[in-house]
Amino acid sequence: MCSYTERFVTRNVTTPHPNELETVAALRLAMRRFLHASDEVTAAHDLTSRQYDLLALLHRPIPGRAPTPTEIAAELCLSRSATTELLTRAAAAGLVTRATDHENGRLKHVTPTAEGTKRFYAAVAELRGERARLFELLSLAAGLAGALSAVT
């Protein structure tokens, strides 16, 4: 007797192309290496991974006003309470400031401080090589996915 999973696989899954399997493994390993390197680098600059994500969001070259906590929560896929905690700790660490909106006093806008920018830029510079390796692999994976979809 076989398990539900075995029956499901037998009926519904075709064997992937060996190149696809190789790419899946390489991509997963590259992402893990990148996340590990990112965690080490951010810690070396006295940042948590969430603070790094927050600073990355705040440093995007998007013209206009600084984001609100609600917008940050949506972008980082965090709950309101997790976002409040993140912003409170980031502000206490001197990484960000929160300022009241001039037109709507109920809104706050979050901006990076000079210290937050300095630490973030240093971490970004250290991760440049890891990002390049990950982007190269993503490009190869995208090319393979396109080739495989044309075949099937």
Give the SSE map.
Blueprint: H1 4-12, H2 18-44, H3 49-58, H4 69-76, H5 80-92, E1 96-100, E2 108-112, H6 114-126, H7 128-151
* Portion in strands: 5-15%
SSE topology string: HHHHHEEHH
Query: Taking Cα atoms only, what radius of gyration do you get, to the nearest Å?
Result: 21 Å
What is the 3D form? elongated
Number of helices: 7
Q: Which runs of at least 5 residues are low in confidence (pLDDT < 50)?
A: none
**How far is the N terminus from the C terminus?**
32 Å
Number of strands: 2
Strand order of the largest sheet: 1-2
What would CATH call the class? Mainly Alpha
Question: Major sheet: size, sense and barrel closure?
Answer: 2 strands, antiparallel
Residue share in helices?
55-70%
The total domain count is 1
- CATH homologous superfamily assignment: Winged helix-like DNA-binding domain superfamily/Winged helix DNA-binding domain
What class would the helix/strand composition place it in?
A: mainly alpha
- CATH fold field value: Arc Repressor Mutant, subunit A
Mean pLDDT: 88
Under the CATH scheme, which architecture would be assigned? Answer: Orthogonal Bundle
Assembly level:
single chain
Could you name the key traits of this structure?
152 residues, mainly alpha, Arc Repressor Mutant, subunit A, two-stranded antiparallel ribbon, 7 helices, 68% helix, 7% strand, elongated
Question: Could you please describe the fold and organization of this structure?
Answer:
It is a single chain. This protein has 152 residues and is mostly helical. The protein has a single domain (17-151), classed as Winged helix-like DNA-binding domain superfamily/Winged helix DNA-binding domain (Arc Repressor Mutant, subunit A). Helix content is 68%, strand content 7%. It has 7 helices and 2 strands. It has helices spanning 4-12, 18-44, 49-58, 69-76, 80-92, 114-126, 128-151, and strands at residues 96-100, 108-112. Strands 1-2 form a two-stranded antiparallel sheet. Strand 1 (96-100) and strand 2 form a beta hairpin. Helix 2 runs antiparallel to helix 7 (128-151). The radius of gyration is 21 Å and the shape is elongated. The chain starts with a helix and ends with a helix.
